[in-house]
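Tokens for Energy-coupling factor transporter ATP-binding protein EcfA2. Go.
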Amino acid sequence: MDTPPEWRGSSVQVCGLWPFSAGSGTPVVGVPLGRHLLTRGTVCADPVTWFLKRLINNPSGFVLGRPGLGKSSLVRKMAAVLPAYGVLPIVLSDLRPDYTDLIRALDGQVIKVGRGEGNVNPLDVGPLTTRIGELPEQLRRKAHADLEGRRLNVVRGLCELSGSELLDHEVNVLSTALRLVDPDLTGQAVIADLQAKIEERPEALRAIVQDRGEEGRYADRTQRLVDALLTLGEDGPYGDTFARRTSEPMRLDRAVSFDMSAVEDDDQVLQAGLQLVCWSYGSAGVSAAKYLADAGLAERRVYLLVMDELWLALNAATFMVDRVNAITRLNRARMIGQLLITHTMDDLVLATEAATKKAWGFVERSEMVFLGGLAEGEMGNLSKVFGMSRREREMITDWSMEGTVNPETGHAEAAPGQGNFLLKTGKKPGIPFHVELTAAELAIGNTNAAWQNLQETWSSRETTDTEVGA
């Protein structure tokens, strides 16, 4: 039997029934997202506010839903309101772009990256690293190790994206070479400097390679690594995308978006590489800001990192799941708010069972999960992990249906589940709601504007043809 509809009213409107025998299960805390589908009450939620109010244990969230059902609208709703609460959204990969107009409306910073656009240096771990030396000794060592690890993770990921997974001694060579070429994390060294340092054959690298005094053995043991770095250089297939210093440092006092729309959709390896670089750069910058704030050396700010199109990075190469996992794990450990977004659980099914398990772990470890329309076969292990009831599964699958064509207009109606989501926190009963956007949000948040303009043009032509025929 379905749950009967519930309604809310003031004590005056429902006098005689108050006080109620059971209270509301929906806390009015966080960004007002829309209306509860059963009670019609306002549903408020976001990872940062719920964490600060101790409703969840970690400021992390995951958004799942088929294309066109409102994932971007949901995330933009949070990003639009959170600055009023003192939380700055940082969109680390905007491929379409979905968030550029919103970030500009918030007086934020839009950083364009890609071929012929700006650059983010893979060796750069954020604009505040020059101040790490001001930290107390123990905190300084911790911050330095954190940022060094992030730098190694992203450069290693780019090298592996260009070829195959690095061997243990190659990772050791890369780690030591990074420390030799930029020990203070200034971000001034670039990929070419890293390659040159390895080719210099310094004693520290010769010891790792175990060349036994033979130049040929050193060259053989480092050749794959050098080849990968050459691929990332200015003369490689990606041009100067990863080869130059950061062209526009990220600001940490306002909302930010990394606009990657200049990269063509069929250049998915470059897109995935840019995602990795920008995710690491933004996360490292926010982490450095938290270290400085912990020491009382900078104003404490709260951020929400938005990592969209997760499927793209994960499907570029099997081992990319490890690089993404390293970034998100460090963010959780540092209590940095993050929101990951992809289409379905099928996006997280990778080439091996082990890789798939790691990818599904991104969802399992998220404290808040927003589920849009999904077909039964696209839900993976969601039912088991979140204890979903039969009714909850039916709602989600019903929302995945496509809209029907209106016989009068000839145009497809909106999908029945567009804007509908089920919020799950652990195995508690989910909160079904419909996202409601204000007129201002609608004006700057239409990701289908180009298609609608084309549709309007065609409709206009059809009308003109009909008038001429008459």
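The mean pLDDT is 89.
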